[in-house]
Design the sequence.
């Protein structure tokens, strides 16, 4: 059932070219230069008139929510708030009848996210679910939604469900933006074209698996890791750090790269591995100067760069290069090497990657 792979997690990482194609199937049509998302079309007026969108989720799904915020705000110009379900449900959140609340959940069973859905529904908001497990509790309790179609995810650490969530959120942001006219036709077409190429580009990145496995061995000594990114890549840094914590039990923190100088840079020494997402699409020069600050303090730099990069490559101890794409789509590519890095570090450390200690696949208790 693991299809020849030693663990479900690595099988699921390698499935991503297919699962993302499945997420886009019948939705992205490059020949007609179009995206159709039934969940959006059925509720078009609600999305076009929304004054605000609140996204509620936990864990990895909360990270995809953050990427969704960047895309919806950029393309649809609707303010988006991203909430941890557990905080949202227990405060007295302000929820208006013309708010849209998007609940993101792989399992569709996370207790706090389900409770957040019920609370928002009782306040009259329109609730839209982005879930993977068909027929699970959250989709049954929302007004409408969109399945991610990543297929069953068995490994406790979420991988293919995350990239499928980001894909659906990106398609949703593009559709709202196109209909509202806040996303130009030219940009829309460029992103549709690039989105359709993401599965094959992930295939190319996966070919570096053995290189990543090799240098992962160098880092099993580490007690701590820092992950940095800016813009769309900031939530990817958070997600990379979460993957490492969950399965290798190495403490890791993700930060927006520019926040380093406000405190965390004090942690940098030659012992500290720092993973930096430094792709050409997305504030490259700014990230370069952040890397120089770390280099000056002798941090060990592992960079995710765009093919052909020289500047960051010269500053780094290890690099993983990924194909170029549109800025909003970089998370779909940059997440892959971070999943592989966490996986291989955990495997070399002898950890049970599919069943990490203290974790359950679906958190149905609060
Ligand atoms: C991380 C992970 C958890 C889940 C979180 C939410 O790898 O698996 O952080 O993302 O428990 O679960 P869902 O998406 O099922 O609501």
Sequence:
């Amino acid at each position: 059932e693991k299809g020849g792979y030693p663990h479900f997690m690595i099988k699921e990482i390698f499935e991503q070219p297919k699962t993302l194609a499945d997420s886009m199937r019948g939705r992205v049509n490059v020949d007609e230069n179009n995206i159709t998302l039934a969940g959006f079309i059925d509720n078009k007026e609600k999305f076009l008139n929304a004054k605000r969108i609140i996204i509620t989720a936990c864990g990895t799904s909360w990270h995809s929510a953050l990427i969704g915020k960047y895309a919806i705000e950029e393309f649809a110009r609707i303010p988006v708030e991203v909430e941890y379900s557990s905080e949202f449900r227990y405060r007295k959140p302000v929820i208006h009848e013309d708010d849209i609340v998007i609940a993101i959940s792989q399992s569709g069973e996370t207790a706090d996210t389900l409770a957040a859905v019920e609370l928002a529904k009782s306040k009259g908001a329109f609730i839209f679910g982005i879930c993977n497990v068909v027929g699970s509790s959250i989709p049954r309790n929302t007004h409408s939604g969109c399945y991610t179609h990543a297929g069953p995810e068995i490994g406790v650490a979420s991988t293919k469900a995350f990239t499928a969530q980001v894909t659906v959120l990106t398609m949703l942001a593009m559709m709202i933006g196109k209909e509202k006219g806040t996303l130009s036709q030219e940009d829309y077409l460029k992103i549709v074209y690039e989105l359709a190429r993401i599965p094959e580009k992930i295939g190319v990145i996966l070919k570096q698996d053995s290189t990543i496995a090799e240098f992962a061995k160098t880092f099993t000594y580490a007690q701590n890791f820092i992950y940095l990114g800016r813009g769309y890549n900031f939530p990817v840094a958070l997600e990379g750090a979460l993957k490492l914590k969950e399965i290798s039990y190495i403490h890791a923190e993700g930060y927006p790269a520019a926040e380093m100088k406000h405190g965390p840079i004090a942690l940098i020494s030659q012992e500290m591995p720092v993973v930096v997402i430094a792709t050409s699409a997305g504030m490259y020069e700014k990230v370069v100067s952040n890397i120089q600050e770390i280099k000056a303090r002798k941090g060990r730099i592992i960079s995710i760069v765009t093919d052909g990069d020289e500047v960051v490559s010269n500053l780094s101890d290890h690099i993983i290069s990924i194909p170029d794409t549109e800025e909003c789509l970089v998370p779909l590519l940059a997440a892959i090497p971070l999943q592989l890095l966490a996986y291989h570090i955990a495997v070399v450390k002898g950890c049970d990657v599919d069943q990490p200690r203290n974790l359950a696949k679906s958190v149905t208790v609060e």
Remarks:
- The longest helix spans residues 185-206.
- The CA atoms of residues 164 and 286 lie 29 Å apart.
